[in-house]
Amino acid sequence: METAFVTASPDAALGDVAALMVRHRVDGVAVVEGERLVGMITAAEFLQLLLPNRVRFLDVDLYLGPRRLHQELLREIAGVRAKDVMTPAVHTVAPDTPLEQVISLLGQHGRRHLPVVEEGRLVGMIDRIDVVRLFTHGSSREETRG
User: Fold this and answer.
1) CB–CB of 105/82 below 8 Å?
2) Where are the domains of the chain?
3) Which fold is adopted by the domain 7-145?
4) Per-residue pLDDT tens for 48-70?
5) Which of 32, 83, 103, 114 is most buried (most C-beta within 10 Å)?
6) pTM (2 decimals)?
7) Whole-angstrom Cα distance, residue 13 to residue 33?
8) From CA 36, how far away is CA 55, in angstroms rounded?
9) Alpha-carbon span 27 to 112, nearest angstrom
10) Residue 37 CB burial class (10 angstroms; 0-12, 13-18, ≥19)
């Protein structure tokens, strides 16, 4: 679990959230009011904003929206507020949640981040890379034995 994680307020502009994600090299940001988790914004939400809307008509897929990304569209999206695009119903775990349950939740539905909440406060963030780190601890122990 990481206790140093990136957060944004619900009223933060998406351009600012994007800048946070790039600066900190993360693909997910917790949206908090005070210390209370209210949602998550990931790179997936940014992708959804840029995908054209698909409409099926007479067995033909029609795509509505711009074919090219124009600076005007990107500026418009950058001004949208975090609360308007965040995923509000976020699965969370407690600090004492068993590792097996954490791994199971991370494996479901392409979830990459799992906020850790204690008494309503966001206290940490578990990412898939934290599971990968488990393997490095085991291999370094093996190397020191041999």
Assistant:
1) no
2) 7-145
3) CBS-domain (3.10.580)
4) 777 656 566 677 666 666 555 56
5) 114
6) 0.73
7) 15
8) 38
9) 9
10) buried
